[in-house]
Amino acid sequence: MMFQHLKNIDTAFKHVRLFTAVLTIAFALTNCYTLYWSYRYAETKDRRLYVIINGKALEAVAGERKDNITVEARDHIKVFHQLFFRLTPDEKAIEDNVKQSLYLADRSAKQAYDNLKENGFYNQVVSANISQEVACDSITVNISQHPYYFRFYGKERIERPTATTVRTLVTEGYLRDLGERTDNNPHGFLIERWTTLQNTDIGTTKK
To answer: Does residue 58 register a pLDDT over 50?
Structure first.
């Protein structure tokens, strides 16, 4: 009888040990799961960005550079062309636009600007009350090899007091990833070896 009693105690002790072990493992797994999802939540929260547009804070989600590189490259190229080719009959406005564009490109763009300036192009724009805007049709970027080759296709709309002229604009160059963003260069790219391939009239409409 005594041995049976001792056996029951030993069996009960084994059950308690097993139950305790199961609880410990379950507790450890629960902790690991909680820590993992807490880390994921914190990481996701840190990747949230808030962009101010027209005075309103809009939430955006940050992504890896490689996930958006083509989109960012195209926007960089488009912004450069819009700034460089935007003209108004105001010397200060032209200089400000070109100055901003030159943060996005190397000396090839500066050389193009200097050539236009030396030829009196900007003086003609001001004296003739000409304004110009560039619309982007498409941009191709090859990101398989760095620096990335690109080609820009667009149209210039030139407004004169007596007529409106539309011109084709095709340029090419290479895009170098600087690995750092600044206020003047928010995408962190630099356009290199930039050249104009085509810039011809499509048609003119008299006013």
So the answer is: no
